C-alpha cells in the first residue's frame, strides 16, 4: 500500500518563505538607504520616480495616529493575531493565493515593526548633514518601541500647478501621489488590493463567522438566570 507523498512546498512553508523574502528585501533596502543617504536626500531615477530618504513615527505612507508606543504595541498584537489566523487558514486548506496575500500583509507589518523595535537602539539619529551609522546596541537615538520607520520610494506621477481660475487652490503646486513609502508598505497595499479583487469570499466568510458567533453569545447571556 502506497502513501501519498507530502509536497515539498506546503502552504505553510510557502507563507514562511514569502514572509522571510519580503523581510530580507525590505530591511536590505532600508539599511542601505539609512547608511548611504542623508535625511531628505533624493536620488533622481526617472522624472516620475525618486529615492527620497525620510523617516516617520507613524503608520504606512507616513501617516501618524496617536501615541508611538501604543501604535507599536498594537502592531505586535495585530501581527500575533495574523500569524495565528494564517495558521488556521493553512490547516483549513484555504486557497494558495489567499495564504500568499495574508503572508504579504504579515511581512509588511513585521517589516515596519522591526524599524520601531530596533532601529532606535542600533542607529544614531539621521540628519540632513551626515549619514547615519550603526552604534553599540542600546546607545542609539531612541528607546525600545520608539524607532522611526524608514521610507524611500517617491512616485510623483503628475506634477503641475492648479490653474489660476480654480477656487481655493488656484496657482498652488499639485503632485499626484505624493506619499513616500517603503517596500513593506507596498507589500501590504498590493496584497490588500488582491484580497479585495479576488478573495472577497474569504473576507465575507470572516464577517459571517463573526455575525454568527455574536448572536450565539447573546443567546447564552439571555439563558443565564
Largest sheet properties: 4 strands, antiparallel
How many H/I helical runs?
5
| Class by alpha and beta content | alpha+beta
Distance between the termini: 57 Å
Q: From N to C, what is the helix and strand string?
A: HEEHHEEEEHH
Please outline what is shown here:
The chain is of the alpha+beta class. The protein is built from five helices and six strands. The chain is globular.
Explain this structure to me?
Helix content is 52%, strand content 13%. It is built from five helices and six strands. Residues 217-225 have low confidence and may be disordered. The chain is globular and about 60 Å long. A hairpin with a 2-residue loop joins strand 1 and strand 2. The protein has 225 residues and is an alpha+beta fold. The protein has helices at residues 11-36, 68-91, 96-122, 183-198, 200-223; strands at residues 42-46, 49-56, 149-154, 158-161, 173-176, 180-181.
Compile the SSE list and pairings.
Elements: H1 11-36, E1 42-46, E2 49-56, H2 68-91, H3 96-122, E3 149-154, E4 158-161, E5 173-176, E6 180-181, H4 183-198, H5 200-223
Antiparallel strand pairs: 1-2, 2-3, 3-6, 4-5
Helix pairs in contact: 1-3, 2-3, 3-4
Summary keywords:
225 residues; alpha+beta; 4-stranded antiparallel beta sheet; two-stranded antiparallel sheet; 5 helices; 52% helix; 13% strand; globular
Amino acid at each position: 500500500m502506497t502513501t501519498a507523498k507530502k509536497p515539498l512546498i506546503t502552504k505553510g512553508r510557502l507563507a514562511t518563505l514569502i514572509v522571510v523574502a519580503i523581510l530580507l528585501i525590505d530591511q536590505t533596502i532600508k539599511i542601505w538607504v539609512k547608511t548611504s543617504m542623508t535625511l531628505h536626500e533624493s536620488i533622481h531615477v526617472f522624472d516620475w520616480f525618486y529615492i527620497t530618504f525620510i523617516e516617520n513615527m507613524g503608520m504606512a505612507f507616513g501617516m501618524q495616529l496617536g501615541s508611538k508606543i501604543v501604535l507599536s504595541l498594537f502592531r505586535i498584537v495585530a501581527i500575533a493575531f495574523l500569524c495565528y489566523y494564517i495558521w488556521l487558514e493553512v490547516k483549513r486548506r484555504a486557497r494558495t493565493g489567499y495564504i500568499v496575500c495574508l503572508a504579504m500583509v504579515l511581512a509588511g507589518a513585521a517589516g515596519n515593526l522591526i524599524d520601531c523595535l530596533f532601529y532606535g537602539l542600533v542607529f544614531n539619529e539621521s540628519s540632513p548633514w551626515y549619514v547615519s551609522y550603526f552604534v553599540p546596541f542600546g546607545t542609539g537615538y531612541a528607546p525600545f518601541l520608539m524607532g522611526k520607520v524608514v521610507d524611500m520610494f517617491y512616485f510623483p506621477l503628475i506634477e503641475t500647478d492648479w490653474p489660476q481660475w480654480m477656487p481655493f487652490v488656484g496657482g498652488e503646486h499639485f503632485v499626484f501621489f505624493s506619499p513616500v513609502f517603503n517596500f513593506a508598505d507596498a507589500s501590504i497595499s498590493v496584497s490588500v488590493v488582491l484580497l479585495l479583487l479576488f478573495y472577497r469570499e474569504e473576507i465575507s466568510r470572516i464577517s459571517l463567522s463573526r455575525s454568527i458567533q455574536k448572536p450565539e453569545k447573546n443567546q447564552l447571556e439571555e439563558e443565564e438566570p
